[in-house]
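Hi support team,

I've been running sequence recovery on a batch of backbones for a student project. Most finish fine, but this one hangs at about 90% for roughly twenty minutes before it completes. I'm not sure whether the input is malformed or the queue is just slow. I've pasted the structure tokens below so you can try to reproduce it. Let me know if you need the job ID as well.

Thanks,
M.K.
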């Protein structure tokens, strides 16, 4: 029998063993894939100390030199797309095509952030005083802790480390306990790129390891992606040190379908949005508000499209469009939310059951009609292939319902009426709105939420500048 790989933390440029380990399994089959460290406080302390001692020299290098490392890592990733994509699918469950997109997007993201090396801007402002200039200098924060979820386990490493490193910070990454193998694959390639020791570090572990990072006085910024509940705990742990927070949290994206919409487009985009990564995406359509005139037709067509989805083990069948959910807890949570929605009066149009495929955490693509604003299914994140639909009379009602939600990450609208699109632009209170297209952000945009969906944001110029502070110098001569 082949031996099971044992993953190791990466601290100060070296892989190091850990005393305690936990098992990592394939969510489609239950097969044991690896053993991964459960890092203790001492590991976290060592990683932060390594990042701290590397930061000054790293931060003093010209940004263009730091960018060269990002480009080198991107090139290594591109040489390994097929192998890494398989690792992602095996460990996290998304289909191979999407896993390949994730690896290529990660490489592109590193290159994109590297392009900013010659574009970081300070400012010079005129002073109220004679013979004085005011300089606004952009400087690195110091040591960043990047705490990651499991749904895009490979890309999210780059989303944190690329802007952090480019701007002169060093980083300690804590991947999700569900997907450490991805991070290990990334780190093994990075270790071949001669990055100075301590600039990039990884500690594996569960919530307690993330908690130790969050409460650590040696961290200057916590860049977290994950659930609202964990975001609240991180904010509380960071409070005594007033550590800077960047929180990318959950979503409950509304999709508004008006009577004049291109229904072919709306059905395809919303269905794809619910199926991609088995509905485990923070920004994808989670609730539909459809105008009464087209409600029956839209519901019938999207139910048909959802029901036709081929699901199963992505590594066993090439034509699978949707893999398993991440674990038993995720499966139970999705099923319980569907059961409660039905008990509350929602009508089952298609799906609604755990899919017994012999192994793995599979759920049938599900459509629920007749939903109401007071139902949990219209208010709480689902993280599975379940689409609840509520009928509305007009855009005003849809916008009011969309905004009345604790989350405010992404939203979408389907209409051919430019005036209605402009009204939504003005009135919908979300970090992102997609009009007549699927929900998928661009790296040059700004991915951020309002309300409980987060603090700060990622991507583009504004995401890059989150990793710097502004030092103001008054120079009188
Ligand atoms: P999670 O909050 O359970 O875990 C995320 C990470 O936090 C893991 O590494 C975990 O070990 C760690 N963690 C757990 N408890 C902690 C604590 N007390 N202190 C510090 N760290 C702790 O989230 P998840 O289940 O891995 O991911 C799914 C969630 O992530 C969803 O809510 C989804 O919407 C969100 N998400 C948001 C975005 C975004 O850009 N806004 C992107 C992807 C995922």
């Amino acid at each position: 029998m082949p031996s099971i790989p044992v993953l190791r933390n990466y601290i100060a440029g070296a892989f190091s063993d850990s005393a305690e380990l936990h098992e990592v399994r394939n969510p489609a089959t239950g097969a044991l894939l690896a053993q991964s460290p459960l890092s203790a406080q001492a590991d976290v302390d060592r990683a932060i100390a390594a990042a701290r001692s590397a930061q000054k020299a790293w931060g003093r290098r010209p940004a263009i030199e730091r960018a060269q490392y990002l480009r080198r890592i991107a090139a290594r990733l591109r040489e390994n797309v097929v192998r890494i994509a398989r690792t992602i699918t095996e460990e996290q469950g998304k289909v191979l095509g999407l896993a390949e997109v994730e690896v290529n997007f990660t490489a592109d993201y590193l290159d994109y952030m590297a392009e900013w090396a010659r574009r970081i801007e300070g400012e010079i402002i005129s002073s109220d005083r004679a013979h004085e200039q005011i300089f606004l200098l952009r400087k690195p924060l110091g040591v960043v802790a990047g705490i990651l979820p499991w749904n895009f386990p490979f890309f999210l490493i780059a989303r944190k480390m690329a802007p952090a490193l480019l701007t002169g910070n060093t980083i300690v990454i804590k991947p999700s306990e569900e997907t450490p193998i991805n991070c290990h694959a990334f780190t093994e390639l990075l270790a071949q790129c001669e990055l100075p020791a301590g600039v990039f570090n990884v500690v594996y572990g569960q919530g307690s390891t993330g908690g130790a990072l969050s409460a650590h006085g040696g961290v200057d910024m916590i860049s977290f992606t994950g659930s609202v509940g964990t975001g609240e705990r991180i904010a509380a742990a960071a409070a005594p040190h007033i550590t800077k927070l960047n929180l990318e949290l959950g979503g409950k994206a509304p999709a508004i379908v008006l009577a004049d919409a291109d229904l072919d487009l709306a059905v395809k985009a919303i269905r794809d949005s619910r199926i991609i990564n088995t509905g485990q995406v923070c920004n994808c359509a989670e609730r539909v508000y459809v105008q009464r005139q087209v409600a029956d037709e839209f519901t019938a067509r999207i139910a048909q499209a959802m029901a036709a989805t081929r699901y199963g083990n992505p590594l066993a069948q090439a034509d699978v469009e949707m893999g398993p959910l991440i674990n038993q807890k995720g499966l139970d949570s999705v099923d319980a939310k569907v059961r409660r929605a039905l008990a509350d009066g929602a009508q089952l149009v298609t799906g609604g059951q755990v899919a017994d495929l012999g192994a793995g955490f599979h759920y049938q693509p599900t459509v629920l009609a007749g939903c109401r604003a007071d139902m949990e299914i219209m208010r709480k994140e689902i993280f599975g292939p379940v689409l609840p639909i509520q009928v509305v009379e007009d855009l005003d009602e849809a916008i009011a319902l969309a905004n009345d939600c604790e989350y405010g990450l992404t939203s979408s609208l389907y209409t051919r009426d430019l005036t209605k699109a402009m009204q939504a632009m003005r009135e919908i209170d979300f970090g992102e709105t997609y009009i007549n297209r699927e929900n998928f952000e661009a790296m040059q945009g700004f991915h951020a939420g309002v309300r409980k969906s987060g603090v700060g944001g990622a991507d583009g110029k504004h995401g890059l500048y989150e990793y710097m502070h502004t030092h103001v110098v008054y120079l009188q001569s």
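--
Follow-up from support: It reproduced on our side and the slowdown came from queue contention, not your input. Residues 41-60 form the longest helix (20 residues). No action needed from you.
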